[in-house]
Amino acid sequence: MVRDFVRREVEPIAQTYDNEDIYPHELIPKMRDLGLFGITIPAEYGGMELDFTTFAIIFEEISKGWMSLSGIIGTHHVLSHIVSTYGTEEQKQRILPRMASGELRGGLALTEPEAGSDAQNISTVAKKEGEEYLINGRKAFISNGENGNVFALMAKTDPNADPAHRGISCFIFEKPVEGFQVGQHIDKLGYRGIDTCELIFDDCRVGSENLVGGEEGKGFHHVMAGLETGRINVAARAVGVAQAAFDAAIEYSQRRKTFGKSISDHQAIQIKLADMASKIHAARLMVYDAAEKKDSGERNDLETAMAKLFASEMCGEVAMDAMRIHGGVGYTKALSIERYYRDAPLMIIGEGTNEIMKLLIAKRLLQRHAI
User: Fold this and answer.
1) Of the candidates 348, 342, 346, which has an alpha carbon nearest to the alpha carbon of residue 19?
2) pLDDT digits (tens, 9 = 90+) for 54-80
3) Hey, which residues are catalytic here?
4) Alpha-carbon torsion 316, 322, 327, 329, what sign?
5) Which of 104, 111, 118, 154 is most buried (most C-beta within 10 Å)?
6) DSSP letter assigned to residue 269
7) Directed axis angle between helix 337-349 and helix 52-86, to 10°?
C-alpha cells in the first residue's frame, strides 16, 4: 500500500514541491489513513505495532519517491518510542493514541546553536516552580518545528550536574503554549518541502506531568535510545534515495546512446552500475540487521550506528555516480537526479554526524574486544 501511495500521490508532485519548498499538507490525511503515524506504536494505544524491519522498509519506499516526506514521520517516531518505552502509563494513554492517529505530529527538540553533536552541552533550562517547569532556551534545525505540535524537549533541570548529561531531562512539549514561538525558518540545500525551524522558549511553562517517566535527569538516556530508531530510519532513507538514483541511472544508461551504442554497453558504465547495486544491497542488509537487533531488545547502538554510517556514505557515492552516468542532463532541474544528490548529505549529517558515528562505533568495539 505504501508503494502504491508513493507512486500515485507522491512521485507526481515531488520535484515541484521540492523545488518550490512546498509543505505537502494534502498528503497528511492519506498518511493518517495508512497508519503511517503509528508504525511502531503499540496496538493497545492505537498503533500498528509493526517490527523495525517493516519500519525500515516503509521509510525506504517513501524515500524512493521523495525523501523529505519521510521527515514528517521520522522524529515523530523517535518521540513515540521515548513515550512508549519510558513514559508513565498516564503519559502513554494521553499522548500515544493521538500520535498514532496523526492528530499529534511529533518532533525532537534537541539541537541548539551551540549543541549539535555535543548534545549534553545544551543550554535550554527547565526550572521547577511548584507543579510546573519554567523553560527558557532556543532550539535549532528542528524538523516539523512549525507543522508538528508535540515534541520531545531536552532541557537541563540541573545545570550544575557533573557529568552534564545527568542534569538533562526530557519533557513532552505540546504546543501552543504561552511563551513559545517558532522562530527562523531555515532554507536548506536539500530536504526541502518539510519545515526546519528554530524554536524559542521564553518563560514557557510546562506541567510536571509532562516530564517523561516522572523522573528528572534521565532525558539524555531517553533520547539517545530514541535516536537508535532515528538512525534506522535515516539509514533506510539513504537506501531509498540511493535505490531511486540507481533505478534512474540504469534506465537512462540503456536509453542514452554514444558512439553508436547504449552507454550501458560501455564497460566504464557497467562497472559503475555493478558497484552501485552492490553497495545498495550491502547497506540494505545492514539496515535490516540493525532493525532485527532493535526488535530483539538487545543493545543495538553499534549496529544502528554502523548501518547509518555505511548507508549514508553509500547514498552520497551512488547519487554522485548516478549524476555521472546521466552527464550534463543529470546536473539540471529537468530530472530528479540533482534532488537525490542534494538530499544525500542530510543522512550523512542528520541523527548524529558520521564522525560521531565512527567514534561511537570505535568505543563499542573497544568495549566488546577489551583485553
Assistant:
1) 342
2) 999 999 999 999 999 999 999 999 999
3) 351
4) negative
5) 154
6) H
7) 40
Using CA atoms, how far apart are residues 210 and 323, in angstroms rounded to an integer?
Answer: 47
pLDDT per residue as tens digits for the range 187-202: 999 999 999 999 999 9
32/1 Cα distance (integer angstroms): 13
What residue segments make up the domains of the chain, in order of their start?
2-101, 106-217, 221-368
CATH code: domain 221-368 is: 1.20.140.10
**CATH fold of the domain at 106-217:** Butyryl-CoA Dehydrogenase, subunit A; domain 2 (2.40.110)
Give percent helix, percent strand, percent coil of the chain, each to the nearest 5. 60, 15, 25
Q: What is the pLDDT of residues 226-274, one digit of tens each?
A: 999 999 999 999 999 999 999 999 999 999 999 999 999 999 999 999 9
- The C-alpha R_g of the chain, in whole angstroms, comes to 21
Looking at residues 296-319, what average pLDDT do you find?
96
Architecture of the 2-101 domain: Orthogonal Bundle (1.10)
